[in-house]
């Protein structure tokens, strides 16, 4: 452990850099019996991959911290489900019914799916199922329970006492028009149950109450405790840190300008601002921000329909402070890079291993990869074989790797199933074959003839040498134009695998027939 800890103290991997900064903070602060990590979730829409990524990345930092410190840690996933539903998400059923419940707390809005006590409970359950799928160790906290159970009461009373100081922080960030009506407290109407955005007539620090007029002009006085009011979301952020004693929380770049607000309110309420990490946002196919309410970008379930959980974790590990497209075409690439990292891990130095994504994905105990062929090649195999199920691919896999079977290589078997599904749903509907140019046709006819006459080793490198030789002799410069032609004419794809490896997997005779059929079809 000492050598691992020594290596971790100098590792440039971002989880260790964040963990070391957190350790410095903890060592300088008051004594605590544990270090608390928190992530927040707004259940106004179905959970998306960004939510998952926040928990995963926080978990990676937590694991890194546990290497460099013996202090106990906790991770709290906090759902702001007392928030009023401000708009109806685009990707849920029964929209008309939901419109009747606008501004009600999410945990009192009926579930449009009809499976849970409320819309908030439904979305919370989805989040927990997603997190449990990945084996996260966390404690789930509902804002509704937190407010109504009294756990938040001391902090809310203090917020009433220090109302002017909180408002001073908030008003600096608001337009003049908004300043006239803003309050950090949002009353929940005793009759309609709606979260009200109304100016307050009085905040009574001694009684711990607020007084306001509702939309009909009726005056109400409510205690700030017991779930009768909630804090606006920015004050809620900082107040939660103070109430729970949070030591670390990350959030997206869209929150970064609010950091001084969150920190300031936390400190006004007697807390110590936690360490933060700001990550870049995920982008959809068009380069726009993914949104829970729009449902653009990939969901966790959609990714897991086409690849194992570890590939998604690998995607999340890479460059968290760089904006990345999150669309279907990133899945195959991340599957293959994950397995490349697994294969390289055993021969790496301890320092290199701590920078390898698989160390962080598997908590320092990465398994061996059983992917004897790349996922991208499985996709191409599914394409040319017209595969309807994984059994169709195993006919080729057994010939290519006689030692492999679904029983001995379960990861490969699962990947074969994913590849068939991905091909059927996302490649087959859009693939386009193009006709070859005269030079490309001549080169492909030459390749077919050489493969037909090939009597040497049937291994990928030997066959790749044949493919290279044909491309060079037919004057393809740069040589990638030759491979691009093979992919577009033979596979109907813009990109593809090492072609020699594909020939070895699909079969020499089968590849010759494929070339002849595609050239004939092109006329």
UniProtKB/TrEMBL annotation:
A motif ('HIGH' region) lies at residues 43-51. Signal peptide: none annotated. Its main location: cytoplasm. GO terms for molecular function: ATP binding; lysine-tRNA ligase activity; tRNA binding. SUPFAM superfamilies: An anticodon-binding domain of class I aminoacyl-tRNA synthetases, Nucleotidylyl transferase. It is an enzyme of class 6 (ligase). It is found in: Cytoplasm. A motif ('KMSKS' region) lies at residues 289-293. It comes from the Bacteria. GO terms for cellular component: cytoplasm. Keywords: Aminoacyl-tRNA synthetase, ATP-binding, Cytoplasm, Ligase, Nucleotide-binding, Protein biosynthesis. GO terms for biological process: lysyl-tRNA aminoacylation. It holds the Pfam family tRNA-synt_1f. Belongs to the class-I aminoacyl-tRNA synthetase family. NCBIfam families: lysS_arch, PRK00750.1-2. This is Lysine--tRNA ligase. It comes from Rubellimicrobium roseum. The gene is lysS.
């Amino acid at each position: 452990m000492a050598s691992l800890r020594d290596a971790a103290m100098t590792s440039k991997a971002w989880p260790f850099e964040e963990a070391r900064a957190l350790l410095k903070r903890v060592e300088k602060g008051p004594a605590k019996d544990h270090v608390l990590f928190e992530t927040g979730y707004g259940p106004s829409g179905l959970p998306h991959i960004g939510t998952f990524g926040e928990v995963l990345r926080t978990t990676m930092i937590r694991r890194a911290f546990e290497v460099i410190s013996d202090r106990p840690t906790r991770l709290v996933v906090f759902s702001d489900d007392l928030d009023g539903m401000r708009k109806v998400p685009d990707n849920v059923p029964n929209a008309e019914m939901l419109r009747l419940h606008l501004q009600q707390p999410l945990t009192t809005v009926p579930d449009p799916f009809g499976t849970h006590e409320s819309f908030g409970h439904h979305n919370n359950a989805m989040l927990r199922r997603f997190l449990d799928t990945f084996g996260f160790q966390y404690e789930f906290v509902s804002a509704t329970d937190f407010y109504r159970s009294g756990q938040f009461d001391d902090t809310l009373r203090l917020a009433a006492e220090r109302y002017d100081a909180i408002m001073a922080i908030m008003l600096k960030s608001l337009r003049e028009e908004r300043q006239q009506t803003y309050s950090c407290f949002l009353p929940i109407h005793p009759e309609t149950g709606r979260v009200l955005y109304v100016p307050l007539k009085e905040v009574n620090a001694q009684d711990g109450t607020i007084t306001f007029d509702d939309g009909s002009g009726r005056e109400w006085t409510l205690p700030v405790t017991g779930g009768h009011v909630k804090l606006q979301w920015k004050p809620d952020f900082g107040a939660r840190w103070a109430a729970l004693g949070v030591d670390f929380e990350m959030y997206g770049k869209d929150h970064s300008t609010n950091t001084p607000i969150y920190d300031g309110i936390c400190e006004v309420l007697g807390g110590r601002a936690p360490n933060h990490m700001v990550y870049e946002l995920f982008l959809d196919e068009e380069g726009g921000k993914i949104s829970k309410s729009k449902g653009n970008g990939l969901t966790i379930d959609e990714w897991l329909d086409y690849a194992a959980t570890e590939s998604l974790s690998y995607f999340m590990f890479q460059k968290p402070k760089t904006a990345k497209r999150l669309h279907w075409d990133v899945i195959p690439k991340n599957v293959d890079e994950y397995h490349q990292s697994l294969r390289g891990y055993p021969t790496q130095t301890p320092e290199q291993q701590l920078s390898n994504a698989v160390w962080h994905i598997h908590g320092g105990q990465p398994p061996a990869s059983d992917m004897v062929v790349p996922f991208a090649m499985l996709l191409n195999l599914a394409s040319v074989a017209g595969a309807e199920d994984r059994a169709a691919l195993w006919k080729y896999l057994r010939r290519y790797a006689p030692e492999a079977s679904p029983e001995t290589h379960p990861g490969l078997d699962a990947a074969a199933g994913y590849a068939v599904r991905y091909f059927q749903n996302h490649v087959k509907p859009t693939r386009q074959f193009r006709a070859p140019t005269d030079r490309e046709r001549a080169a492909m006819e030459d390749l077919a003839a050489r493969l037909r006459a090939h009597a040497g080793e049937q291994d990928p490198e030997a066959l790749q040498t044949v493919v290279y030789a044909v491309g060079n002799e037919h004057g393809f410069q740069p040589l990638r134009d030759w491979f691009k032609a093979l992919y577009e004419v033979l596979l109907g794809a813009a990109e593809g695998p090492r072609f020699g490896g594909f020939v070895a997997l699909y079969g020499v005779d089968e590849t010759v027939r494929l070339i002849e059929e595609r050239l004939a079809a092109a006329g």
